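Quick one:
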Amino acid sequence: MLRIVSFTFNGFAENTYLLIDEATRATAIVDPGAYSRAEQDTLRNYVAAHQLDVKLLLNTHAHIDHVLGNAFVLNTYPGIPFLLHALDLPTLRAVATYAGPYGFANYEPAEPTGELVAGQVIKLGESELSVRFAPGHAPGHVVFYDEASGQLVGGDVLFKSSIGRTDLPGGDHNTLLKSIKEELLTLPDATVVYPGHGPTTTIGAERRSNPFLG
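Output:
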């Protein structure tokens, strides 16, 4: 069974997730926003205290708040794969050009070692994550769905009573709505959504009451 642990990091209040296969302790770190030394220590100390076996670094997308800790993770757990959808490579590479003006002068870039594609299945110990392509907030945005536990790590696609913003480069409102309706609202109502910001929600709750999906 997959267990998900969340941390909220950096000035954007971004949710960083550990996806932990409870049978093997194999762990994927998703969207590490840890920037400060204290944030990095919090993440590293949790992994060590729970004897987790970090196997993967995954990005749902590559806006600055979700990638500030990429290099830290790769330096701390050398040799692990770093996967990102190819359409978000330009988004990732652009971060270095604006990190300083945003107040993150010590941002360290990191390059993916592999690609995420729609329909891909990622094995994590005895758990399996399916990759769903959900652009609109970012060109190469993906979400990670664990059918067995009914959990979705959704990045900045769907929030509790809201949806991702589409006014950033590469964003498109109609594309985002299409992604939500085809890739998220087709999941069971009980599916728990772990968003990139804010509290968890469920597919059913957002289907019933999200004002952007009426």
